[in-house]
User: Fold these one by one.
Assistant:
Number 1:
Amino acid sequence: MSWQDMTAFDRAHVWHPYASMTDPPPVLPVAGARGVYLELADGRRLIDGMSSWWCAIHGYRHPVLDAAVREQLESMAHVMFGGLTHEPAVALARRLLALTPQPLERVFFADSGSVAVEVAVKMAIQYWRGRGRPRRHRLLTVRHGYHGDTLAAMSVCDPQTGMHHLFRDVVPRQLFAPAPRTPFGGTWDPRDIAPVAALLERHADELAAVILEPVVQGAGGMRFYHPQYLRRLRALCDAHDVLLIFDEIATGFGRTGRLFAMEHAEVTPDVLCLGKALTGGYLTLAAVLTTAEVAAGVSAAGSGCLMHGPTFMANPLACRVACASIDLLLGRDWAGEVRRIERGLRRGLAPCRALRAVRDVRVLGAIGVVELHEPVDLRAITPRFVARGVWLRPFGPLVYTMPPYVIGEAELARLCGAIVEVLEETA
Ligand SMILES: *Cc1c(COP(=O)(O)O)cnc(C)c1O
């Protein structure tokens, strides 16, 4: 099949993320990927500024990760996890517990980030049933969050920017505090915590948990907020006996300059969700970590067990490549690499500040964001980036990049240069 025929069939029959099926936007056929480059079917190569949505931290076709998958294929691609276990799952659980704070000591493997959030929410609800407080089943979160596309996850996404307002009447009604306002690196304003403190005070007896993304809010607005917010929130949750869930699906594994974003605040949640970069972008896998206390409460609920068990739970290929990805990350100076990218992004994106269309430019770790006053026209802007040899996928008024950690200086400069030029041209 020629790639022209392939894209025609794709256009007629295959759904893409957040895309119309009656007037689908164009998609580019990718024939391969290597290092930081996507290789298009027509031979053009694009620097991937998105790491395939935060995942491909080591770039594509990394020899160590390729070898890990091949090696695992020699023993088994998959077996059910009910009543069975295997070395890749245990090895990965060991690594995750070693990397995260001590109170987190029970691991649930889920098959995607959204499912991890569902599992975290179910853990919180079942925990309160186990403790004889079934009225505690609601969630509190902050605006501008993003937690995935399944129903419980949607219920805690930002009700406006969350793209899910269509479902307002269908999903459970949760409580929303304003998003944290003190920016990362700014001077902490103690008033920032007051609204969430008031909601906790008023609703504690119906709350199962508070859920939010620590320090960096991703797809709900690409906002970076002050870690002190998390320290205050932890104290409030303790005072009101409410569980705290951190969604580190986007921020985990070094992206913000710390291995986990919660380390900026030195705060430990009761439940932690990991995903995206967990497998280095090779396979879908997520993990939910929790404390012995929460696990005991969950198991004390009527069912005696957590009511969740996906078919592909702890898939051995995914667990094996996740182990290899973590070892690869820890075996190199990842913090130095992320700092180098942070410097490159600050330098490279700085000229955007002079543009009238630009509201803000912000960088944290290996994340660079240019926020515009007006939403971007994706159909118009994408070909301009592609013409300059870069792959970016803005949403709303946000042009942002989180490149693979292996990106070189020249490529990083090209990526930033393309953003500056395209915004000069279009804005
Ligand atoms: C991407 C993301 C999710 C959802 O993960 P999927 O694997 O896409 O289901 C949840 N939370 C955050 C913070 C994310 O960035």
Number 2:
Amino acid sequence: MDEVSGHDFGSRVELALAATNHLFNARNSPRYVAQVLQGVTAVATKLERTTQPFTGVGPSEMKARVGAVDLDRPLPDTAAALEELEEVYLRDAVYFHDAKYAAHLNCPVVIPALVGEAILSAVNSSMDTWDQSAGATMIERRLIDWTAERLALGREADGIFTSGGSQSNFQALLIARNHAVAGLRLDSANAGLRLPSLLEKLRIFTSEDSHFSIRKSASMLGMGFDAVVPVRCARDHRMDPSALAGAMAEAHDAGLVPMAVVATAGTTDFGAVDPLAELAALARAYGAWFHVDAAYGGGLMVSNRYRHLLEGTKLADSVTVDFHKTFFQPVSSSALLLRDGAMLRHVTYYADYLNPESAALAAIPNQVDKSIQTTRRFDALKLWLTLRIMGADAIGALFDEAIDLARRVGALLVAAADFELAAEPQLSTLVFRYRPFLADGTRLSPDAADALNPAIRAAVFASGQAVVAGTKVAGRHYLKFTLLNAEATLEDINGIIGLLRRTGESLLENDPAFSNSGISKAGNSRAGNTAAEASA
Ligand SMILES: *Cc1c(COP(=O)(O)O)cnc(C)c1O
């Protein structure tokens, strides 16, 4: 017997009725339009009123504000929730469209992609199976073909959209690993061995400047971090082919199996594009997989001026491209491309309830057969609308602008006596540091510069007036600009340089920790606080 009292039943029906008003359906379509418009308007208003990339809010204040929200007590309407969102998010978010945001590869986004974002999340296609996606699968496949063609990967190429460069790199190495293991199993001496004993022999070669996701992937693939052999770069931060040749020969002579060579087309710090053709030849000589991580440099494929830098991708077995970096797409949008699409079988698993083998045999296009994700967003729609509304050349022009701006900023930094540029810009990043001459005519010591530059960065971040990144080069602390904003001007970036300089001068003058007599350990550990105070 159902023991529900009349009262409970009544309120339950009421709640369910009210709840159905929130469902995205034909009856509620005016509500959908109105509410999304309220949200979009809140963001648009925010953009119009935002004059710097950040407010400088700290984590403890944000934690308190977010923590004060009672999640078990909903607000009366969307307007109230958006008002609250201003407090807990929008006011203090980091804004990538601002010309003084110059830190990471997260990019200003293009409006056609935002239209796509709204549509894809509303329709909510899921890319795992044809019966949840239909045309979305064909759009994704068409864009994979388009990308593979731009990368000159040949007629057998295929690929899949992923959540990001890290996932694309992981999947590439998973396929390369399984391909290498299948090769090892052809040797009868290995026939009875379980996977872990085979993995022991495999090595991945990549430059010391390559992305950390390569090492992390090796670890996740059961090979250990130390299966990755770091290869020396030349002075221009591109992998040195003779160093690779030496490292591969050494591994081969030790009875190890060179599983893969991972080249980078656009390193995260220096934008360096490795000498792809030479590295490809070495990979081939040892029967190793040749993967190109073009997470950053991928946008060069639509550049009319710098496209030639990616020419070597035609020799790759696989390529990572992050559309959410140099194609100006919102997170997430990335892809993995393979020269031989059949290699995707290494991630295929047939589940009776979802993608039975019978479906594959009947040529039903289930994208889950090619992916390490199951339920998956239709991120390809953003790129589709971007190409249909703006066109590829326009995307390339945006990246070209950022590359040109980086060159001009590089010249500024070379001319500035109190800054040191670590290397000529290659794409749109600049690695540099503040190292002024002191009253006695000597230059600030490298150790003092190591303490000062992170303090400058922290102080500028806390001021919210600009956001720059930091990195290390040969153990030394540097600052980094990543420029992706085609509307940022030389004056904007010069403004950031001025801010960095003034902050550095102020720290040197007012903070005993940064006096010329050298920096004590205690001074170093206080640097973060004093920096924040200096900017207040
Ligand atoms: C950003 C980047 C990645 C990681 O991509 P995510 O989309 O952040 O996962 C990998 N490789 C390079 C060279 C990158 O710059």
